[in-house]
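**User:**
Make up any protein.

**Assistant:**
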Amino acid sequence: MSTLAERYAQMRDTTRVHERALFTLPRIPSELELQARWFAGDFGKEFVSTNGDQIEIIQFGVWNREAGPDFRDAAIRINGDGPIPGCIEIDLLDRSWETHGHATNPAFEATVLHVFVERSDRAFFTRTQSNRSVPQVCVDPATLPEAFNPNIPLARPGRCQAPLKNLPEERVSSVLDAAAQFRLRQKANRIRNKIDAHGRDETLFQEIAAALGYKENKLPFTLLT
């Protein structure tokens, strides 16, 4: 028997109901938010490279706020082989590795993974100054959970009003309970992914910081961690 949250999720999918946003976010997040999402484990830990290799993130590394790769002291595994230590670079575009000059910059020699969002019309290869090939992973922001979302639902009648306005109070309460369980499950899944990526203590610290930032400053407060 399905739970209230599962029935609510099915209802959302079949009716295509969603909350209309007050502000429209760009399709691609900023590079800073992309780094934050990656570090939080929102994209997951297992990927398929552009060459078809299985990539597993063993250690997300240390977030670098200065010159050089975005994450240092990271480690990955390729096709189940032994851990490969190094750095991870994250860009919005695959060609940014070339346009930003990373290919000739010795600071990026230790890079073991290049993550990007958008592919170009032609293929761009990630190579270091020594001409070593670096695996590429393309991530899709559409798969991101609703974290760091500054959107505020409009406080005016929407598509839910018509089907709900004539329902008895107990039925409306049931829908609201189901929606609450659905959102709680989404949040639990997001926190579980973060625990898998960084452990319980670091996750607790990040979540407290995000909560203290409230809706307007979740990302800046998370970056403080």
Observations:
- DSSP finds seven helices and seven strands in the chain.
- Residues 21-26, 147-157 have pLDDT under 50 and may be disordered.
- Residues 44-138 form one domain.
- The longest strand covers residues 84-93.
